[in-house]
Specification:
Layout: H1 8-19, H2 45-54, H3 57-61, H4 80-97, H5 102-111, H6 120-130, H7 137-152, H8 159-166, H9 180-204, H10 214-220, H11 224-239, H12 249-267, H13 270-273, H14 276-292, H15 299-302, H16 310-319, H17 323-334
Length: 342
């Protein structure tokens, strides 16, 4: 990575050498981008990736994508965007405490859900049914930054950020990402959603804090902030001066139990998830319509048909929709309008 000797970036790179853990990923070690870009004198490569992500269209659309509750009316329920911001904040706290590369951590965290479907995991299941069983939001997030964004040119992110985006999901026992910073995003993702989903479920009236098993509240904390602090501290204590990321055993076990509790009481709760079947059916119907009439795809998706299949392009379009856009488009295509005359 070429930089002028007097550039601000060199100051950042020297600071990394002086302050980062031996196990941290140095910006100077990046494998770089698929297409060359002239280095910036003010920002490191990972700082540039962070800015590319926060200014892209897919990032803005996250504000109107479901986290747990479908198209929530209340102003205080999490969306996919607020989830992403909470993940990023938690990840940076842990990265700083562990003396890892905060810029790499931040960029991967901000981009980790860019390819998430409308209606949360219900949308993911819909595309697994109608497009491919192998469809996943994390692989779609990678496709967004490599192919779909920036008028079809992709964001041209560094290899390490793309690696963190692709490998943020799955069991904590499987590291996946090639850098500790990427692994840290996986931990931050789970810490964030476990705790904010409890908060939202309580707000929705389908759960109370007293419903959480007493022994888990005793170990992890009685309040939202206490539980996050306990989990974050556990990761920091379990990972300090180590070449891997882990929680301390007691907190890891309690966190797993709390996640299982949420699956039983929230994620599979018919009150919270009663509309998901409708959402799946709606997205499948939209997918089938545009596969049949690909000429009606927006140009930004239709232009990829020559290099990919019609089905792939329709999947890209549907997965990129926001909740309300999908609902409105479905109404426009399939619901007859009331005749009002003149």
């Amino acid at each position: 990575m070429e930089q002028k000797k007097d550039s601000f970036v060199n100051i950042f790179l020297e600071r990394e050498e002086q302050t980062l853990s031996p196990y941290a990923f140095r910006t100077s070690q990046t494998r770089g981008r698929e297409r060359y870009q002239t280095p910036c004198e003010l920002r490191t490569e990972f700082q540039r990736d962070r800015d590319k992500i926060t200014h892209c269209q897919s990032f803005r659309r996250l504000m109107n994508k479901t986290q747990v509750f479908l198209a929530p009316v209340g102003d205080h329920y999490r969306t996919r965007l607020t989830h992403t911001l909470e993940v990023t904040q938690i990840a940076r706290i842990m990265a700083r405490a562990l003396r890892l590369n905060e810029d790499l951590t931040e960029a991967a965290a901000l981009g980790h859900d860019l390819g998430h479907t409308p209606f949360g995991h219900a949308g993911e299941r819909a595309l697994q049914k109608c497009y491919s069983p192998d469809f996943s939001h994390y692989a779609q997030s990678l496709r967004v930054v490599e192919v779909l964004e920036n008028d079809g040119q992709g964001l041209n992110l560094t290899w390490e950020v793309r690696d963190g985006i692709l490998n943020h999901s799955g069991s904590l026992d499987f590291c996946g990402a090639s850098t500790l910073e990427g692994v840290l995003v996986k931990y931050a993702d789970k810490i964030a959603y476990i705790n904010h989903d409890i908060d939202d479920a309580c707000r929705a009236g389908i759960l109370s804090l007293e419903d959480i098993p007493a022994h888990l509240r005793e170990i992890l904390g009685q309040r939202h902030s206490q539980r996050i602090n306990t989990m974050v501290t556990s990761v920091i204590r379990g990972s300090t001066d180590k070449d891997h990321i882990c929680m301390t055993p007691e907190i890891a076990d309690a966190t797993d139990q709390l996640r299982e509790f949420l699956f039983e009481r929230v994620y599979l709760n018919p009150v919270a998830k009663g509309e998901e079947g409708k959402a799946e059916a709606m997205l499948i119907k939209l997918y089938e319509y545009f596969v049949k009439y690909p000429e009606k795809l927006p140009e930004s998706y239709k232009r990829h048909i020559e290099s990919a299949s019609v089905e792939r392009c329709v999947c890209d379009y549907v997965s990129g929709m926001t909740d309300r856009y999908a609902i409105q488009l479905y109404n426009d295509l399939f619901i007859p309008q009331v005749w009002r005359g003149r």
